[in-house]
Amino acid sequence: xxLLPGASGARPGDGAALPVRKRxxxxxxxARGPAPAxxxxxxxxxxxxxxxxxxxxxxxxxxxxATPAPLAPRARLWPALGAVYRAxxxxxxxxxxxxxxxxxxxxxxIMVLMRGVVDGGAEARAVVAGSSVLVVAFVALNLxxxxxxxxxxxxxxxxxxxxxxxxxxxxxxxAGAYASFTVPGVVITAVAGSVLFSLPMGGLWVLVAVIPLAxxxxxxxxxxxxxxxxRAELATLCGQLGMSAxxxxxxxxxxxxxxxxxxxRDLLPSTYGVEALARTFEHSPDxxxxxxxxxxxxxxxxxxxxxxxxxxxxxxxx
Amino acid sequence: xxxxxxxxxxxxxxxxxYPAGRTRRGxxxxxxxxxxxxxxxxxxxxxxxxxxxxxxxxxxxLVRQLTGLLRPDSGSVHVLGHDLVRHPDRAARLLAYxxxxxSALDELTVSLAVETTARLRGLELxxxxxxxxxxxxxxxxxxxxxxxxxxxxxxxxxxxxVATALVGExxxxxxxxxxxxxxxxxxxxxxxxxDRRRAERGASVVLVTHNVIEAETVLDRVAVMDRGRVIACDxxxxxxxxVGDDVRLDLVWRERAPLEVAEVAALAADAAMSGRRxxxxxxxxxxxxxxxxxxxxxxxxxxxxxxxxxxxxxxVYLALGGRTEGLVKA
Lengths: 318, 330
Description:
The complex is a heterodimer.
Chain A: H1 5-9, H2 28-31, H3 35-39, H4 47-51, H5 77-94, H6 96-115, H7 121-154, H8 157-161, H9 167-196, H10 207-228, H11 232-251, H12 259-267, H13 269-280, H14 287-316
Helix pairs in contact in A: 5-6, 5-9, 6-7, 6-9, 7-9, 7-10, 7-11, 7-13, 9-10, 9-14, 10-11, 10-13, 10-14, 11-12, 13-14
Chain B: E1 7-18, E2 33-44, E3 48-52, H1 59-66, E4 74-79, E5 82-83, H2 91-94, E6 95-98, H3 110-120, H4 125-138, H5 154-166, E7 172-176, H6 184-201, E8 204-209, H7 212-218, E9 221-226, E10 229-234, H8 236-242, E11 247-253, H9 262-268, E12 272-274, E13 277-282, H10 284-294, H11 297-302, E14 303-309, H12 313-319
Parallel strand pairs in B: 3-8, 3-9, 6-7, 7-8
Antiparallel strand pairs in B: 1-2, 1-4, 4-5, 9-10, 11-13, 11-14, 12-13
Helix pairs in contact in B: 3-4, 3-5, 5-6
């Protein structure tokens, strides 16, 4: 530090008192070789030189400009949503194992286990549909709740909060990406389940609607839980509980459950995704009911994503 | 150095108290912390303004209030003429902020992190990609542009985060310890890039640091903070003038101080001792005499190293009554 031009420049009369060398090292800064040159950026003169001309005190004498400076434009919703979605999708390359495979293995395992117990009919349809939607619950509800919970706890939300991006773009972009992560797992599970339980595959095209709608409902719920939970561990816990509920209440056929549990089942948004998919395994599906179930998913999706957007705004400014 | 006047940032009497921690069974709760205690600072246009102080001094709390992330309990924050207490959402359209956390970007590649941030700062795709390429070249990130942030070393990751803060033009940059963990080459690239924005576009910079060397070399003015208060605010030179003409003499002995030498024994009375290291604050004449004494005769044989230096910001900080444990001198 004594070698810096600023330090000497500030004290012109003290030449004799300035650094004296012994064994080549004058100060810790000098001992590190290139450091003094580096800490002096090009174009920035030493502080001592500046002292003569810059204001001497930090008193608030200067006033803010009379006219406020123009604001930079906001990021528009759709381009920003696209950018968040793309960035989130790319995370799958880094975290691909939990995102894409764990959920699928879990569902395949459940179906293999249930194969020994269930022998076709309504139960088989419920098992396959429940296991398929479980992939959505695992990724969109559980992992997204964890993601937002950790982001909030670590202060990572500050990054988005200090960019002029609509809250909905961040929430929808992340929710959309997590719903997209479920696509391969849901398809693999549904096809494998149909083969395992000898179910017709003609109605599987309905997954085109089930995945985004159940995905929206569960991802919205997951995002809201993650953003509202006061601690990251609680967000993780809520996500796990939600997924466990989707597992137990989705895979087991509704008719067999006690009445209070059936009410809980009716409250869970994943149930409607399960029912819609289960109906399409029937030989002549009741498309009116399928449409109703998907409508419930869509409505819950709208509400939960709106709640998640609200929760994001609340979490972003503390 | 002549530059247009006008306040870019003006805070007055900012107060922010973090509530007391809740008590759990067996452990006492933490008391409330007044992280900003009547902070008034003004940053002028084109200025690199520093906040210096150890951890917990209230620097980050202050910048979080400047960036609309934290609402003060009382007081005002004006940035470029906008009232950010009333309109915290405007901060994102006036300034770029580099926080201490990178968890939002950790799993993205450097290139995508910069591009996405540019897009979210409102740039069109083509423009965002052009700025991304420019900043990556400017900070010499080309070789690691395709790697995810979390696979990088701490300094490289920090540099990538700086790139996200620099992309997309803003008249004010708020940087919270931007060079933490960086090697000298990266630091130089950062300061060159920051200075370019100031010289070419008139950008102003608010910089949080606890590195006194950095503070002395890059800052136009420094607010020294301690326990939520600004205890001094001036140019580094002006601050150093506060501690007068005294110079600092550091002596490091090989094994132990040769107290049998009369001159050394006399110095011992005024020295702050830390193991083999003595620190003395002396007038220039007394320092010259002391150097003469310890560099000759038997004292020299016992001496391992010594440094004679004009006052640093650390001395200022100490003289103003601050705690120095948290300050970095490298």
